[in-house]
Amino acid sequence: MKRIIQLIAIIMVLAAGQTANARTGVTYSPAESTFSLETNDDAQQVKLCIYNDGLDGKPVKTVNMKRAESVNGGALWQISVKEDLKGKFYTFNVKYDGEFRGECPGVWATAVGVNGKRGAIIDMAQTDPQGWAADTRPAIPAKDLIIYEMHHRDFSIDKSSRIEHKGKYLALTEKRAIDHLTDLGINAVHILPSFDYASVDETRLSQPQYNWGYDPVNYNVPEGGYSTDPYKPEVRISEFKQMVKALHEAGIKVILDVVYNHTWNIDGSNFQLTRPDYYYRKNADGSYSNGSGCGNETASEREGMRQFMIESVKYWVDEYHIDGFRFDLMGVHDIETMNAIRAALPSDIFIYGEGWSAGSCAYSGELAMKANISKMPGIAAFSDEMRDALRGPWDSDKRSAFLGAIRGHEESLKFGIVGAIQHPGVDYSKVNYSKAPYATEPTQMIAYVSCHDDMCLVDRLKASIKGIDTDALIRLDLLAQTVVMTSQGVPFMLSGEEMLRDKKGVHNSYESPDEINHLDWDNLQRYPQVMNYYKGLIAMRKAHPAFHMGNADMVRRNLDFIDTRDNFVAYHINGRNVPGETWGDIYVAFNSGKSARTIDVPPGKYTIVCYKTDCKPDGIAVYAVGNNKVTIPAQSAYIIHN
Ligand code: CA
User: Fold this and answer.
1) Could you tell me if 275 and 39 are in contact, meaning their C-beta atoms sit under 8 angstroms apart?
2) 24 C-alpha vs ligand 1 centroid, how far in Å?
3) From the CA of 268, how far away is ligand 1's center (Å)?
């Protein structure tokens, strides 16, 4: 036994040693800068070039790096330059088979020049905004999160936003933005890719350019296009931190959308230029596998890639105080890597992802797919069951589902209501995709009806329900979000839904112009009932633990379905058994049918909190039920309690 413990201790020391080496790049001090880079074992030479400029000019210094040690089946190269290099830029160039592969900043640049072509040597401490040392992550447990998914440019670019720093990180430091988010009541923003990506040319930001940013270049540097000056390496870093600090001060967490599953390209990627073919999966015939649908897929199961991912997320937490991560196409990664990431991060860091891939992956082990979520405690996956049960299937914008009064989606809705856990009231054989519960705990399911992908809710309702008028559109929009915001899973909404946003019917707006993607803040005046309802709904959820118990057993014990009919689901929560809950019996009903329905409740006095286009946690009216029956209006959600 003692021997085993000793062995474990040795392994742990070895593992710790490896981790210490895992972040390469540059370490700066005024006396010297130390550069390091991981290559394949057969690298013949590594050249380090130092520049005065981030983009142009010839090197002012070129040095050969030294092979230091073996690491991750490859080699670690290092060199120290005993000068004060602050303000300079650098590239690595690795020689294989007698040929230099081309200059790049390596995979671990933490500061870069414009367009991320060259690494930058800066004093990171000088990028900290005032008070940064005192900045802390808001303490909000996973079960209490309400996530708002946003793109920097969508959110603030339109003049109606009246935000000064339009499309920039700094927008989220402005009172107008913060006030809107706190007024709505969300407590986490999920920002679309905000690491350095390729598809926006940072040298011509005076012209409108738009992209979601799922084309990673430098994983450990903020994107320059959202900064006020992408040429100055410190600016994007400092502004990003200012954004995080302002949101934290408002009690809002910051979740980063991370895209480790693929890179912008293979040939020119920092991965490929430094360790050719190491970071990517290949098919048996030698071609690159394309599980991402973007032309390549990374190999998280390889030690160097796994370490890279672990160290990268840790870095964002340490340096930028990030509160959570949304893994793009998480199903491309292996389970072991996702669990290692979970273990490496503090427990309050929220982790979720897309539990699917966009093509088949060249990996024979188990992938981090939705169906495997029970093997990844502390990690959540988006529920396409609930999403598609509400709006209609992902492969046809024209088809509707529950919202369009198409029957047969009730069990899928119930699957989402309980948070994808095992529950005796759900008939899993009738659920659209998963025929078994995938979550062990309800916080492992993301509840949503729309996100950046596919049509937003307004467009989808218009495309899938013929002749829908504005009143019906609003009724069904509110109904949909009530299902989301009362789910035992973690609710998630697309930015702008509270403004009844539309994208003019565009299905995939990843590079559509601002006029498609921007939020129209004037809609807050045009449709005040929408924002008011969302506010009430979110406030109700926050004030009532019954809607986010966060524990599967508690949900099974206290939530029971009382009625399931075509286009109709009703359930009861026994609030008395939920710690902290002030309501007793809570009745929730969703009626997407075109006529009113009734449910049976015990006689007594009830407070109505959600009725037609009103949701008020303090109550709309008190209602005495004498005949055991309450009426649920058409196309709406209904919530009462005693
Ligand atoms: Ca960029």
Assistant:
1) yes
2) 21
3) 14
Identity of residue 469: D
Nearest-angstrom CA–CA distance, 390 and 392? 6
> Tell me: the pLDDT tens digits for 130-165?
999 999 999 999 999 999 999 999 999 999 999 999
* Structure-token match 């009734």, residue found: 598
The three-state secondary structure class of 456 is coil
The answer on pLDDT for 4 being more than 70 is no
CA distance 246 to 576: 38
**Protein residues with C-beta less than 5 angstroms from the ion ligand 1:** 196, 223-224
d(CA 158, CA 162): 8
CA-CA distance, 270 to 101, in Å (whole number)?
10
| Active site (catalytic) residues | 328, 354
* Structure token digits, residue 54: 């981030």
C-alpha distances (whole Å) from 172 to each of 197, 244, 248, 249 are: 20, 8, 11, 12
> Which element (helix H / strand E) includes 590?
strand 585-591
Longest CA–CA separation in the chain, Å: 89
Give the CA distances from residue 438 to residues 334, 428, 441, in Å, rounded to whole numbers and listed in that order.
Answer: 17, 11, 9
Cα-Cα-Cα-Cα dihedral sign, residues 539, 543, 545, 546: negative
Cα 163 to ligand 1 centroid, rounded to whole Å: 23
Tell me, in angstroms, the distance from the centre of ligand 1 to residue 195's CA: 8
State how far the Cα of 431 lies from the Cα of 371, in Å rounded to an integer: 14
Exposed/middle/buried for residue 163 (C-beta within 10 Å: 0-12, 13-18, 19+): buried
For position 22, what pLDDT does the model report? 72
Q: What angle, 0 to 180 degrees and rounded to 10, lies between the N-to-C axes of helices 233-249 and 303-320?
A: 70
**How far apart are the C-alpha atoms of 132 and 601, rounded to whole Å?**
53
Residue 204 burial (C-beta neighbours within 10 Å; 0-12, 13-18, 19+): exposed
What are 19-74's pLDDT values in tens digits?
345 789 999 999 999 999 999 999 999 999 999 999 999 999 999 999 999 999 99
Helix (H, G, I), strand (E, B) or coil at 444: helix
pLDDT higher than threshold 80 for residue 122: yes
Looking up tokens 């990690």 gives: 379
Q: How far is the CA of 222 from the centre of ligand 1 (A)?
A: 8
CB atoms within 10 A of CB 7: 10
Phi and psi at 251, nearest 5°, equal 80, 25
**What are the structural domains of the chain?**
19-127 (2.60.40.10), 145-476+499-507+522-533 (3.20.20.80)
3-state per-residue secondary structure call for 81-141: ECCCCCCCEEEEEEEECCEECCCECCCCCCCECHHHCCEECCCHHHHCCCCHHHCCCCCCC
DSSP string, 593-607: SSS-EEEE--SEEEE
Q: How far apart are the CA of 112 and the centre of ligand 1, in A? A: 10
